[in-house]
Amino acid sequence: MRPSAEWGVETDPVRVALRPVNVSRYISHKIDGADSGSFTSSVTKIAIISIALGVAVMIVSFAILEGFRNEIQGKIFSFGAHLTISKYDNNNSLEVEPINGAELTQEMRKFPQIKGAQPFARKTAIIKTKDEVLGIVLKGVDEKSGPSPMRANLVAGKFPVFADSAASDEVLVSRKVADKLRLKVGDDALFYFIQNPPRVRKFTVAGVYQTGLDEFDEVYVLGDIRQIQDLNGWNDSLVGGYEVVLKDFRQLDATAESMYNTLRYDLKVDKITDQYAQLFDWLQLLNRNVIIFLLLIIFVATFNMVATIFIMILERTNMIGVLKAIGATDNQIRRMFFFRGLNLTLKGMLWGNLIGLGFCSIQYFLHPIPLDPENYYMDRVPIFWDPVIIGVINLAVFVTSQLAVLIPTYLIARIKPVVAIKFD
What is the pTM for the complete model shown? Predict the structure, then answer.
């Protein structure tokens, strides 16, 4: 017993045969294979290649740009955090007047944007070894509120151990300082502090760090904040300042303004973007150059797509005339070339994503492309994965390519059937 139509199943073979199909998509699919070996075939391949290369280059460019940004910002934040709170000082010295850490901690609890804060103190010193002498800044840190982000920059040895009983005599030096003074992990060095009366301390090199940023590597040595408190005659509650990490770096300006208006008049709030303006300006300039470069790539890919559809229309002028003669509308023929362009765009995007993501994966896991740390602040090309940016790139290419496809299809309305059929 055959199911009847009342069950929602079409049983009439004549009606099945006459079921309407998408004529535009059907013809587009047919001419796809018919173009093989023709001049149009070569042009379509060029269009696919241009879209693929455009997508691949944009994915790789943004991955590297964001990688640079995150690597450099991470190195800066590991040494200076987002905001620095200290006492006003007219002489711009690295050694500042002390502030009461307990009172400031209570004040900072009023700001929900703060993720964490660590006290610090700085003191200038001269390191003397058997053969060398070098001026540095000893930066005292405290890990009671959490591990120091400088641990991420450790390249040899270990991070100094800060015991609860007494001040640690271990320090962390940069690779540049270690090379200049010919120090290695486990060596001792004398630190001379110019004060009244002068003081001398012997410290042991526990580890070596490297950020690649000369602003830090050539100047700073990390040690226990209690050593500086002892040298300055401060009690345990006095510190040089606090380094504040925010929950969202994008709220930097607003939070700094709010803290400036709320904290005591004798305290200042310094933003990391002002302290190291040259580095952030360089990142901003790099970002602007990449955007201009990507706009040029999109323009070239769009131009190639327009040219490809124009050539396809010219080669199919006779067919367009015949279709119009048998009753096809301009919109039906226009959709036919639209589907053809859609097919080319999707093929190009597929290959572009495979090439771009494949290159990024190879660099991310195997690091085949190195960099000179002296010039680029890191030893390899960095890669940062951001699905949102990848999605936006694909969407932008898709939309611009489809808009480019529509431009030449309006030429179809000007084609007259009689003239087109005679066209050679």
Answer: 0.77
